[in-house]
TrEMBL record:
Keyword Nucleotide-binding among record annotations: no
Annotated GO MF terms: heme binding; metal ion binding; peroxidase activity
Name of this protein: Dyp-type peroxidase
Metal-binding keyword on record: yes
Domain annotation Dyp-type peroxidase C-terminal: ranges: 138-297
Pfam families noted in UniProt: Dyp_perox_C, Dyp_perox_N
InterPro entries referenced in this protein's UniProt entry, alphabetically: Dimeric_a/b-barrel (IPR011008), Dyp_perox_C (IPR048328), Dyp_perox_N (IPR048327), Dyp_peroxidase (IPR006314)
The family this protein is said to belong to: Belongs to the DyP-type peroxidase family.
Length: 316
């Protein structure tokens, strides 16, 4: 049975650290071996600092996957969708690797980052090093509770992890979308509480959905749903960030089926018939975005040892 990486279905933490890296030329063979060691570094540190609830993952971008694992590709792995919309501009990044570390101790994050960077320093260059934090009781910087309808319990695995029925090779892996959304906090804070709640579709205090009589069709809540009762099966691990005059949210989303991401963006941008543009996007600017696949620990180990065999269903 495939073993997923610790960070995919982990519960929320206090601190998040993110590395976006580009791989130097000709490093693929040694990198396959080193990437397989990262989950073991995370597991060892998680056991040593058990109270920190450390977890993490490594994911490979859609544009770099074929360089690293040319014999097999996740069927639905595609670039971050840049959809035609006058409402939102998205700047995509070409970072080859995403490494995420989360825990309840910032010093443990630092130790994990240090060990991983020492492992990879001869093979990659760091494009971005980002940090996120838990704000109040799990809220965004808008003051609203983040992702109140996120899958819980076993539904987290069902939403995020590829099953063996879908792909024997990539079972236990997950499609990942990562983006940084900068918040126009000045203009957001000028809104009244009822205006903010109408935009979100939730009560600010406890994240209960607004009554149907009050719920606006362009609210964030309705624009992210399949229908009035059902959310798209996407697991979110978002964390606020803030430095200098820039602040917002680092969005990390997981799904077993990457088309859910495209579907969600089509809904939010009002590109489907009968759908409205998500008014919350008026207060955000996405200046960094990319699509990745986080393979299982089993896949990483097999690829490091050269023991993977391609199957017709997994080769593109």
């Amino acid at each position: 049975m495939a073993r997923e990486q610790l960070g995919i279905c982990a519960e929320a933490n206090l601190h998040g650290s993110y590395l976006l890296c580009n791989v130097l030329d000709g490093q693929e063979a040694i990198l396959r071996q080193k990437l397989a060691r990262i989950p073991h570094i995370m597991q060892r540190l998680a056991e040593h600092f058990s109270e920190a609830m450390l977890s993490g993952l490594v994911a490979v971008s859609s544009h770099y996957w074929d360089n690293l694992y040319p014999w097999q590709r996740p069927v639905g792995l595609q670039a971050f969708p840049v959809l035609p919309s006058e409402h939102l501009a998205v700047s995509c990044t070409m970072a080859d690797l995403l490494i995420q570390i989360r825990s309840d101790r910032l010093d443990v994050n630092y130790i994990a980052l240090q060990q991983i960077q020492q492992l990879l320093m001869a093979n990659v260059e760091v494009v971005e090093q980002l940090s996120g934090f838990r704000y109040l009781d799990g809220r965004q910087l808008t003051g609203f509770i983040d992702a109140p309808q996120n899958p819980r319990g076993l539904k987290r695995r069902q939403a995020a992890l590829v099953t063996a029925d879908e792909s024997a090779v990539f079972a236990g892996g997950s499609y990942v979308h990562f983006y940084r959304a900068s918040l126009d906090l000045k203009h957001w804070q000028q809104l009244t509480l009822p205006q903010q709640e109408d935009i979100h579709g939730y009560v600010k205090l406890d994240a209960k959905p607004l009554s149907m009589a009050r719920l606006q069709p362009n609210s964030h809540l309705l624009c992210c749903q399949l229908n009035e009762q059902q959310q798209l099966p996407i697991l979110q691990q978002n964390m606020p960030f803030a430095h200098n005059s820039n602040q917002g949210c680092l969005h990390l989303s997981f799904s077993q089926q990457p088309e859910h991401f495209v579907r969600q963006w089509c809904y939010r941008l009002g590109l489907n018939e009968g759908r409205y543009y998500d008014s919350l996007l008026d207060y955000y600017r996405i200046d960094l975005a990319a699509a990745y696949f986080a393979p299982s620990v089993s896949f990483l180990e097999a690829a490091a040892h050269g023991s993977l065999n391609a199957t017709a269903s997994d080769v593109y």
